[in-house]
Amino acid sequence: MSKIVLLVVLLIILVLGASIGYFNAQPIHFNYLFGSAEFPLIAVLIAAFSIGILLTLLVVAGRLLTMRMELGRLRKQLREAEGELRTLRNLPVGNPPTTTP
Fold first, then answer.
1. What's residue 96's pLDDT?
2. Which pLDDT band holds residue 90 (cuts at 50, 70, 90)?
3. Closest to 44 (Cα-Cα) out of 65, 20, 68
4. What percent of the chain has pLDDT over 70?
5. Are 30 and 39 in contact, with CB atoms under 8 Å apart?
6. Which of 48, 74, 85, 98 is the most exposed place for a label (fewest CB within 10 A)?
7. Can you tell me which residues the record assigns to a coiled coil (predicted)?
8. Burial (CB count <10 Å: 0-12, 13-18, 19+), residue 42
9. In Å, how far are 44, 54, 63 from 57, measured between CA atoms?
10. How many CA atoms lie within 13 A of 93 on its CB side?
11. pLDDT by residue (tens digit) across 17-46?
């Protein structure tokens, strides 16, 4: 059932993309940093969308790397605390020393 829904959604996206490409095929004059050129509007839209996706992935990758480093640090801290707890549990239990006045 979910494969059929996924197929229908993909088909709708494909039809929408094709219609957007068809209605935005006229050439536009595009000025960029080092000059200018004429491109179809859909090419400029796809390029801008792709650049946005790439920049987002770079930001997410940086955040993911930071979180993985923090996870490693926290796991090391947990291992040390578990080792200390194990050591404390293995200490013999005896009567505490009493002091006489």
1. 65
2. confident
3. 20
4. 95
5. yes
6. 98
7. 64-91
8. middle
9. 20, 5, 10
10. 1
11. 888 888 888 999 988 888 899 998 888 888
